[in-house]
Amino acid sequence: xxxxxxxxxxxxxxxxxxxxxxAVTACSPMGRVDRLTRIRDRSPARVRAAAWAMLLVGLALxxxxxxxxxxxxxxxxxxxxxxxxxxxxxxxxxxxRIVAEGFTQKFGQPFVVENRPGANGNxxxxxxxxxxxxxxxxxxxxxxxxxxxMYLQSRMPFDPRTEIAPIALVGYSPLVLLVHPDVPARNLLxxxxxxxxxxxxxxxxxxxxxxxxxxGMELLRSxxxxxxxxxxxxxxxxAITDLLSGNVALTLNNTSASVPYIQKGQLRALGVAERxxxxxxxxxxxxxxxxxxxxxxxxxxxxxxxxxxxxxTIERLAAxxxxxxxxxxxxxxxxxxxxxxxxxxxxxxxxxxxxxSEKWSDIVRRSGARAE
Length: 372
What we know:
Layout: H1 2-19, H2 29-41, H3 44-72, E1 80-84, H4 91-107, E2 111-115, H5 122-129, E3 137-141, H6 143-152, E4 164-172, E5 175-179, H7 188-196, E6 203-206, H8 212-224, E7 229-232, H9 236-245, E8 250-254, H10 255-263, E9 268-272, H11 287-290, E10 300-306, H12 311-326, H13 328-336, E11 344-345, H14 346-367
Parallel strand pairs: 1-2, 1-3, 6-7, 6-8
Antiparallel strand pairs: 3-10, 4-10, 4-11, 5-8, 5-9
């Protein structure tokens, strides 16, 4: 009997070991302590603490999952919005629509232009800066946002050096000095003489405070000593309309908005604010050769988005923008509306923006212009 009991005990011990290696028997003192510890570990306070810990770990992983999902999501995943920082019909609007048509054909999603003028581009670009960094919102604007406003305005709604991502320079629209037909001047020197006889009594229009047209006229004023009054509008179309009606006497406006009226004889052009004459208006002298040496003001169009958009998306957009602007159909279209093709991307565009910022800061300082 004793031998049988030993066999049973031995078998029982082996079975326990196979189920729970290294465990002590329930009847031993150590076994009682272990069981009490496990009961204590399941107390309500410890259960709640464990649940909170698991919840916090899950919440901490949510941003990682969101970033991974965004990285894996195809772009563009739905229609893309392009903010044009001018009213419909303005030069920025025209350039934005040229780009949008090309992007729509290339990327398989609609690229829709939305006009948000005001504050020399700041209003429209701020909407892009505040949007998610998913590449679904872009903007087309003039040098104001990239290179001028920070020197002209005491407070900026965003920092263009850190909160926007330049994609490509997509062209430029030279400025033309225009006068109403009732102005007796037939050339620049006659205009300057006429203005000097009427200090503070002649007004000029611009597409807005801080625009290249505004600063160009302020530069002309500082270089020649004429006393003229600034009347700003929200876009080139309004500035041209008031000039046509005779409410103002002159303006420095882009060729895209001006050429049709020059060709019809509704407005008189006296000079172009470029270093060289234009192919679209070859008979028109530069302002520098017409009597104000060194005068040169060039507005350009930049495509951008908010900082944080993936490098891959920006590079795809930049490559396609370059392709669009080099197509014969695009070049012919630009020529008809008085725009000039030019494309820069990547590091070359970044260097250009820095050089433009230095130039415009000097022009703002020399002109004394401020925007509040």
